[in-house]
Design brief:
This is SOUL heme-binding protein. About 25% of the residues lie in helices and about 30% in strands. By secondary structure, it is an alpha+beta fold.
Length: about 210
């Protein structure tokens, strides 16, 4: 093996090491929305989430919605507060666009007219203490306590894979006699630079009568 090849291999190993180190750091540095594990059914985990506060908007596409919410947590609010970003990102991906997954985001198709997206705020914020948005298209939302069923997976989350896992999740719940109360969502816990083999993803759906 010549010197050039050895140098290239050494450089590649260093780059891979730095990539993995970044993935490990980013996954540990973000605050996660808290929950209590209830039980597991055939690979599906049931969780109970407390009341949470979200900042929400509806736009023609995910990218526009994301930018509005990012401006809010960057200080575009009445107190000009910068709000920490947490995990996971929650989305429906109705328009097929990719957005930066570095905050807790929820999105779905708002009656076919666009994308509704929301960032979960850190646990320190309640309905009274959360900064009020200054943009008219952005609003605060309080989500009551809920029970959620999730199935996890790694690597990337293309539409076909998410749809397959949604079907698997709903089939398992149906067999256990547990009724979904909303449409399934995709949860992503890592930023775009995380190595795919280190990524943590989940398909989730709110359920009733799962205690």
């Amino acid at each position: 093996m010549n010197r050039l090849t050895k140098t290239a291999l050494a450089g590649g190993a260093l780059a891979l090491g730095a990539w993995v180190a970044w993935g490990s750091y980013s996954s540990r540095s973000a605050e996660e929305v808290p929950y209590e594990r209830v039980r597991e059914i055939d690979g599906v985990e049931l969780r109970r989430y407390p009341r949470t506060v979200l900042v929400e908007t509806t736009a023609s596409d995910q990218r526009t919605a994301f930018r509005r919410l990012f401006r809010y947590i960057s200080g575009e609010n009445e107190r000009q507060d910068e709000v920490s970003m947490t995990a996971p990102v929650r989305s429906d991906g109705s328009d097929g666009e990719s957005v930066s997954m570095t905050a807790p985001v929820r999105s779905d198709d708002a009656d076919g007219s666009g994308t509704r997206m929301a960032f979960y705020l850190p646990a320190e914020y309640g309905p009274e203490s959360a900064p009020v948005p200054t943009e008219s298209t952005v609003r605060l939302v309080v989500e009551p306590p809920k029970t959620v069923a999730v199935v996890g997976f790694s690597w990337y989350a293309p539409g076909w894979r998410v749809e397959r896992l949604e079907a698997q999740l709903l089939s398992t719940l149906d067999g256990a006699g547990i009724e979904p109360t909303a449409e399934p969502s995709l949860l992503r816990y890592d930023d775009p630079w995380t190595p795919p083999f280190m990524r943590r993803n989940e398909v989730a759906v709110e359920v009733a009568g799962a205690d």
